[in-house]
Every structure is written in C-alpha cells, then in structure tokens.
Design brief:
Helices cover 29% and strands 17% of the residues. The chain has helices spanning 49-62, 81-89, 106-116, 130-137, 142-154, 175-185, 211-217, 285-289, 294-306, 326-329; strands at 6-7, 13-14, 16-20, 67-71, 96-101, 120-124, 161-165, 188-192, 223-225, 236-240, 246-250, 263-266, 271-273, 282-283. The chain has a 12-stranded mixed sheet. The protein has a two-stranded antiparallel sheet with strand order 1-2. Helix 1 (49-62) crosses helix 9 (294-306) and helix 3 (106-116) runs parallel beside helix 5.
C-alpha cells in the first residue's frame, strides 16, 4: 500500500481532512446563510455513509491523512454520524476524529459520539444572550446549544472548544462576557475573523471585526502568548489571566496562515477542495460511483492537491469569493 502524501507545489502536505456531511442546517447564522436557507443538494448527489468511509479510508491508508473533522452544514443532522465516527476510528492508522457543530442535538448524542471514539468537539456559539442568539441565528435555540456544550463536557470531550464570530454592532461588545463565561465553564474559546464565505455575499472588509480589534475588546484580560508551538494550527493562542485556560484568535483575513496550511476538504457531494477559498473542485464522486480502484481515486486526489495556490487571496484586489458558501464547503 502506498502512502504518497497530499503534497502541493509549495512544500505543504495535507494531513487534516475536513469532511462535510451535509450542506443543510437548522440555524441561519447571518454571516453564513440567508433566512430562507439555500437550494440544498439533492439526496442522490450526497455521498452515502459507505462512500464517505471509502474516501476517508483511502485518505488515511494511502494519502497520509492523520486527522478527520466532520462538519457541514450541520453534521448532527446526518443520521449516521455516530456510526461514521466509529468506522473512522476503526481505520488504520487510527486518525484523530473531531466534530464542528452548532450544538443543536448534541445533548442527545454527545455520549454516543464519545463512545464511538470522537476525540474533540468544537461548538459554535457567538453569544450567551438569548436575544442576540436569535438575532444572529434567526432561531430561539440558545438553551439547546448550552445543553449540548454541557453534555459534551460531561461525556469527556474536554476541553470543549467554542468558536465565535464577532459582528459589528451585534455581539462585538459581548466579547469579554463570552470569554468570561467560557473561562467559568472551562471551555476554550476561539474568535474567528469573519470571512467572505457567506451565501449572500454581504461580507465587507470595513465591517468585519479584525484580530486587532478583538485584542482591544479583550484588554480587560491578561493575555500571554501560549508557549506551545503553533505549527499548522490556525489559532494564535493566549493564556488568560495566568491560565490554565487559553483563548484563541483565528485571523484568517488580517494575518493569513496559508503558508502553514495542512488541510484538505471533501464536500458532502464528493468534491475535493484544496482550499476553503478555492474556485475549483475535483470530482471524486464520479470515479467512486463508476467502479474506480482505490489507487485511481487516490491519484485523482493527489492531482487535486498539486494545484493548491500559495494563498487564499482575500487581500488581493481581484479576489473572487468561491462559488459555494461556507455551509456547502464545510467550515
Ligand atoms: N454548522 C456547524 C457550526 O456552525 O459549527 C459547522 C459548519 S460552520 C460553516 C463551521 C464554522 O464556520 C462555524 O464555527 C461558523 O461560525 C464558521 N463560519 C461560518 N461562516 C463564516 C464566515 N463567513 N466567516 C467566518 N466563520 C464562519
Ligand atoms: Fe449553520 Fe453553522 Fe452556517 Fe450557522 S455557521 S448557519 S450553524 S452551517
């Protein structure tokens, strides 16, 4: 069995696979998708559980994938999620398996996910105020998310990570209270700069809250750069008030980290994307469904990575947003 890595022309090697399990979602975060939702993928185009596992297995066995993160859309909407986690953890060499979720329904499934071998979970939460939550997500579901977080912690998926996006005039003034709440709960908070990946194309450079602003908003806390090596991790981490808990800032726009990127993405309909911002995808579903061998699929996947651009280009005046929004790519 060969393990020729997923290398690109700039010396980067992808070992971290993000798998989108669905493009559907039960929230409507306004930095992600419009109130009316989107034209969801037809079921026939979405990879089956067996097809997902086959591609993940090829990634792990032949292409050097070491970490698998299930995402979406909302991955908890995928009925077979627990089984997908279990089957991924049965692969050899065993990858790390994590989940990025909005937390709705996590209260019910956290223990089963942990038992299936899930290693980590990131829950997206931008506010702990019910009215602001409803303003951002258009759903009155804050209590469910908080219950999901508590269940994940209880199930041993600790330290639970919380992802937050700050929106000017909506929740930016709440950054300190969100951090304090996460510190109190023992959750690791990471602020993510808002990126031009919303379906509505409403993102604006002047409106987004930059990492610099986030540091100003958190000036009431004592933040010391964490000692652990950052490596390919997108978050700049800081020990808060002497520790042990840390806070992270993911400055994808103002401090891009493309040079250290080790990620590759698989969409719910079986397209490989070598970058979140790529404007091209490589179809693995067609060969998968027309009897191609593992070796052929692995070779197609390698070719898809070879053309990865050096950077996402957001700061280029000619930048064009990818055709698919974040929810369809897999965040
Ligand atoms: N539904 C799940 C969730 O919300 O965690 C998984 C998919 S969601 C697309 C993954 C992450 O992307 C979330 O943490 C969300 O906040 C983030 N996200 C979505 N749109 C974004 C944008 N335009 N800029 C930055 N982050 C975004
Ligand atoms: Fe759904 Fe996640 Fe997008 Fe919010 S960020 S609308 S929870 S996919």
């Amino acid at each position: 069995m060969s393990t020729d890595a997923l290398a690109d022309g700039f010396g980067r090697v992808a070992t971290d696979l993000r798998v989108s399990l669905t493009d559907r979602c039960n929230l409507r975060c306004n930095y992600c998708m419009p109130a009316e939702g989107l034209d969801w993928l037809p079921n026939a185009e979405v990879l089956t559980d067996d097809e997902v596992i086959r591609l993940v297995r090829i990634g792990v066995e032949q292409l050097g994938i070491e970490e698998v993160r299930f995402t979406g859309g909302e991955p908890l909407l995928r009925k077979g999620l627990v089984d997908l986690v279990r089957r991924t953890k049965e692969l050899a060499p065993t990858p790390e398996v994590s989940l990025t979720t909005n937390g709705l329904g996590l209260q019910r499934t956290a223990h089963a996910l942990a038992e299936a071998g899930l290693d980590r979970v990131n829950v997206s939460l931008d506010t702990i105020r019910p009215d602001t939550f409803a303003t951002i997500t258009l759903r009155d579901r804050l209590a469910d998310v908080l219950a999901g977080l508590a269940a994940a912690n209880d199930a041993g998926l600790a330290p639970v990570k919380v992802n937050a996006v700050l929106l000017r005039g909506v929740n930016d003034d709440q950054a300190p209270e969100l951090l304090q709440w996460c510190l109190d709960q023992g959750y690791e908070l990471r602020f993510i700069e808002q990126m031009p990946l919303d379906a509505q194309h409403d993102w604006s450079r002047t409106e987004m809250i930059t990492a610099e602003e986030i540091f100003d908003l958190l000036s009431g806390f004592d933040l010391t750069p964490a000692e652990e090596a950052r490596g390919s991790a997108p978050a700049e981490k800081f020990v808060v008030n002497g520790g042990p808990t840390t806070v992270g800032v993911i400055a994808s726009v103002t401090r891009p980290f493309c040079g250290d990127c080790d990620r590759v993405r698989l969409t719910a309909d079986g397209q490989v994307r070598n970058c979140l911002f790529a404007r091209e995808e490589s179809d693995l579903r067609t060969p998968l469904r027309s009897g191609a061998s593992d070796e052929l699929i692995a070779q197609r996947w390698r070719l898809a990575m070879a053309t990865k651009l050096p950077g996402h280009g957001i700061n280029d005046p000619l930048f064009l947003q990818p055709t698919r929004p974040m929810s369809a790519i897999g965040g």
